[in-house]
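Late entry, zinc ion complex.
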Amino acid sequence: MITFDKIKYHSDLGNLKCGICGEPFRADTDIYYSQKVSGYVCEKCIKRFSKQQIEEFLVLFNTYKGHFGQFNISVMTLKHMIIEFFDLISYTSHTDIIELNMRLRHQALLYGYTPEQLIELMKRIIAK
Ligand SMILES: [Zn+2]
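Prediction complete; structure with ligand written out below:
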């Protein structure tokens, strides 16, 4: 299980942002850091997501960049996003299913969809 150390943010740490939501840290606020995955996390995100989710999100954002909710959720529905994603699979040479899964999860996070919402929608699509 991943653990996070709680530290106080101060300017000596540099201009840091939350590795999940992308919000810049304010002086003297509590922030969280794990040796296991690189990235600092704000209190709001620590409370909102499980430690396991935060670990996964940090890995995805460290790999593919961006942050949770970076894009306007109204711009693209999750269903539309999944359809586009399947289009991507059909015309690229991607054969690594693990990477494709990571990219889909990353894309959902960019639009502020949680993994639970992504799974719910995929279940509904499969059921049709
Ligand atoms: Zn945050």
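The pocket of zinc ion is lined by residues 18, 20-21, 23, 41-42, 44-45 (CB under 6 Å). Will revisit in the morning.
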